[in-house]
Amino acid sequence: MDDIYFSRQSGLEETRLVFLKGCGLPERWKGRGSFTVGELGFGTGLNFLGTWQLWRGTRPTPKAWLHFISFEGFPLDREDAARALSAWPEISELSDKLIERWPERALGVQRIVWPEEGVTLTLHTGDISETLPASRFAADAWFLDGFSPAKNPQMWDKSLWPMVQQRCTDGVSLSTFTVAGFVRRGLADAGFDVAKVEGFGRKRERLEVRLNEAPQPAPDVYGLRSPDDRPNRVRIIGAGIAGACLARTFLDRGLEVEMIDAASGPAKHASGNPLALVMPRLDAGDTVQARLLIDAYLRARQFYAGRPGVTETNVLQRPKDEREAARIAKVLADPPLGLENLEAAVSGQLHKQALILEPEKLIAHLLEGAETRFGEKLHLSDLNPEVPTIIAAGQGAQDLLPWLGLTGRLGQVEFADVAVDAPPSAIASGHYALALGQTRLWGATFEAWDGTGPDLSEAARATNMAALEELDPYWRQAAKAAELQSRAGVRATTPDRLPLIGAVPDEAAAREIFDGVKHGQAIEADAPLVGGLFMAGGFGSRGFTWGPWAGEILAGQILEEPAPATEPALEAVSPMRLILRALKRGG
Ligand SMILES: Cc1cc2nc3c(=O)[nH]c(=O)nc-3n(C[C@H](O)[C@H](O)[C@H](O)COP(=O)(O)OP(=O)(O)OC[C@H]3O[C@@H](n4cnc5c(N)ncnc54)[C@H](O)[C@@H]3O)c2cc1C
Ligand SMILES: C[S@@+](CC[C@H](N)C(=O)[O-])C[C@H]1O[C@@H](n2cnc3c(N)ncnc32)[C@H](O)[C@@H]1O
C-alpha cells in the first residue's frame, strides 16, 4: 500500500493532537483503576508509544493499568519498526522496550505485558474483517488510524462501525485524522455522534466521535462475562505450573494471592519433573485450534523470558510417523510462524527460541509474594464466594468437579546427571530428550491411569530407554554410565485435547437451561455459573505452554480486562463447552 504510517516531521505531535487530545486524554483516565484503548492499525506502534508515554506521566494510581488493543493486517518486522521509530529519540526508552519484545509474525492474538509499568499490549494480527469480529473487549477510547480512506477503504468500511460500537464502554471517545464523508456517514449510521474539529498540519480538520449509550451485552452462553465487582484478592487451589502462572499474573496486577495445595510444597505432582520442554505445536490448517496453540506458545515465551530456571534452546523435531512427516512438510511450505522461529532440518523441523524449563526453580520464583498454605486440601464446601477461587488442581480437579470427565494419563521420565556439561539442546519425536548442563532427561510414557500412585515402573523405563536409542544413541551410551532416576506423574486430559480455562458453570442448572440444544435448538441464554469459581486445567502434555496464557485469560475475565484471545478461542477452552457438547450429542 503506498501510504505513510505517520508524517516524518510531525508524527508524534499528530499522535498527541489527533488521538490523545482527540480522545480527551489524559483527563478521561483520571481516577480510573484501568483504562482500555482500541486502535485500528498498529503500524509502527507510534500511537501506542505516545499513549504509554502519557500514561507514564499521568498514571492515575501506582496500581492502575493501561490496556492497549490494536489490529494489524501487515505486521512490520522488528528491524523495520526499529528504523521507523528511531525518528523519535524523545521516546527511545519506550521504543526500545517495545522493540525488545516486538510481536512475532503470526496470525492470531499476542499479549505483551510490562508489569512494572502497568501496561499491556494486545495485538490482533490478520485482516480487519476477520480479526475485529473475533475480538472480545470494550474500549474506553478508540483510535481510528488506517491509511487514508481513499487508499485503504477496508479500514474504513461501514461494516466495521457496528463492531466498534459493540466494543465500547459508557462514555467512550473516538478520534481520527480523516473527515471523509463516507466515514462520517458510516459512523453516524452506527449510532455515533460525529464532530469535525480543527485539524493538524496539512489536514485542516479531524473528527472527534462520541457514543452516549453503551451497547447491550449479548447472551453469555459460554460464561465469559466478568463478575460485577473487581476483587483485590484471589484464592488459587494447586501449586503446579498452572497455579504458579496464575499467582504471578494476579500478583503483578497488584492483587493479594492465597495459594492452597494439599501437598507438602509446590510442584509435587505433574509439574515437578527436573526439566520440562516448551515447544510449539504447529498445525497445517488455519483453524481456531491451530491459532490458539500458537497464541499460547508465544505468550509462554513472552512470560518466561528472563526468569530463573528458563533457558532458550533449539528443538529438533523429527516426525514420529508418516502422518507427522506430511504435516511437517505442509507446515514448512507455509509456515504459520516467522522464519526466525522455524527452519527445515535434515529430517523434520527445527524450532528456534523454544525453552527448557527447570520447574522447581521457576515455580518457586513465580510464587514469590503469594501467601502459601501447604498440606491443606480444598473441598467445594469450603468455598467463600466473596473471594474468587481458581481451581488449578491438575487431575485433582476431577474429584472436585466430577462432571468434567478428565482422564488421567500416567507418564514417566528418566533422568541422570552425567559427567559432561552440554549446551541446552532438545530432540522431540513423540518422545523427547533434553540436555541442560550436566542434566539429561528423556521420556515420556503415556499410558492409562488406574487412579492410584502414580507409581514408577520398569516397563516404562524400558520404553523410555528404547525411545532414547531412537532419538540419540550417543546419549544412550552416556546414560548407561550414569545413575538413572525416574519420576512419574499424571496428566489431566480432556476429550478434545484443549485445556479448561474459564468460569465454572453450575452443571445441573446449565443442563436444564440448555436442554433444547439436545433437539438442535440454539438457546440464547446466559450460562449459569457457580459464583466466584473459575478453573485452569486439563493441560494434558503441554502444561508449561498453557499456564501463562491461562493466567492472562483468567486475569482478563476476573478483573474485567480485555481478553488476550479471540472469542472463538475463549469458547473453545471454556468449561461450559463440555456441557454444550454433551447436550449436542444428546447426552
Ligand atoms: C512424565 C511427564 C512429562 C511431562 N513433560 C512435559 C513437558 O516437557 N512440557 C510440558 O509442557 N508438559 C509436560 N507434561 C505435562 C505437564 O506436566 C502438565 O500438563 C502440568 O504439570 C499440569 O500442571 P497443573 O498445575 O495443572 O497440575 P499439577 O502440577 O498436577 O498441580 C496440581 C496441584 O493441585 C494440588 N491439588 C489437587 N487437588 C487439590 C485439592 N482438592 N486441594 C488442594 N490442592 C489440590 C496438587 O497437590 C498439585 O500440587 C508432562 C507430564 C508428565 C506426566
Ligand atoms: C496509518 S497506519 C497505522 C499507524 C500506526 N497507528 C502507528 O502508530 O504507527 C495504518 C495501518 O493499517 C494497516 N492496515 C491496512 N489495511 C488493513 C486491513 N485490511 N486489515 C488490518 N490492517 C490493515 C496497515 O498495515 C498499517 O499498518
UniProtKB/TrEMBL annotation:
One Pfam family linked to the record: DAO
One GO term describing the cellular component: cytoplasm
GO molecular function (one): oxidoreductase activity, acting on the CH-NH group of donors
UniProtKB keywords: Cytoplasm, FAD, Flavoprotein, Methyltransferase, Multifunctional enzyme, Oxidoreductase, S-adenosyl-L-methionine, Transferase, tRNA processing
Co-factor requirement: FAD
GO biological process terms on file: methylation; tRNA wobble base modification
Span list, region FAD-dependent cmnm(5)s(2)U34 oxidoreductase: 237-587
Region (tRNA (mnm(5)s(2)U34)-methyltransferase): 1-212
EC number(s) recorded for this UniProt protein: 2.1.1.61, 1.5.-.-
Domain of life: Bacteria
Signal sequence residues: none
Name of this chain's protein: tRNA 5-methylaminomethyl-2-thiouridine biosynthesis bifunctional protein MnmC
Record organism: Henriciella algicola
Lineage: Bacteria, Pseudomonadati, Pseudomonadota, Alphaproteobacteria, Hyphomonadales
